[in-house]
């Protein structure tokens, strides 16, 4: 069972994913050993993972959001086939079990239908499909992803963890080299792997590991995130909101929605409903209150649609298996 300290440690990791356990303990008023023990228990249980992520733009890839309406009796096999593909970054089954929502990484020049359906068995499973470009993620200041589970950091605690506002990337994205592959693979599995562990995996010195991480991080090529499994924290309703916002309000509206603690992700897309937001709440009542209070107060939203997730399959860097977050197998 998770408790208030677990929630606080999760919130701390969202603010500073690679903060040392000594600092995590100091910020939360516990010992370094207690902070480490709580973190490892959460990770072993599959509630959370710290992951290192490479910006797909360094490989010339964009992200596309697909909605696939399927025959209900065929949605499971099709969803599982999509989930196994490395170019699928996110996948879930929604809307009563007849819709698959997924995010595809593919070059801008790719033909949309071809990029999704290649390598899949041809069948009559797909009834309808739309694919739209994810134009812009709303990563506004104060938007830490989903924090609706609780936990709170004061400005002083955030300052202690980060040293101040996160700097903008120092320059153009830095394409990883073949030598970087073991480093990046290790961080994709465990974003908190130490310099010593990374040196052992790469054959580099700890100094070289530190310098390469600094170069990749400062350019924006490498970032860190927390994958969370809300269901294990008592939050069982997950919905994708498809919002329609006038261009004049797009930036302000998207930034404001991204700051909501119920929102795990918000981004602008090329669809008729041009803002996508992933929302997690405890139950239907809490979701209704979110719609009628927080979302209703945001100016610029002209219309909305809702897809309720019924099965979580894959998110940013994790598969969901047997109710746990796990690292995807290579391939």
TrEMBL record:
Keyword check for Membrane: no
SMART domains linked: HTH_ASNC
Classification via InterPro entries: AsnC-type_HTH_dom, Dimeric_a/b-barrel, Tscrpt_reg_AsnC-like, Tscrpt_reg_AsnC/Lrp_C, WH-like_DNA-bd_sf, WH_DNA-bd_sf
Keyword terms of this UniProt record: DNA-binding, Transcription, Transcription regulation
Domain HTH asnC-type: 180-236
Superkingdom of this protein's organism: Bacteria
Name under which the protein is recorded: AsnC family transcriptional regulator
Species this chain originates from: Streptomyces laculatispora
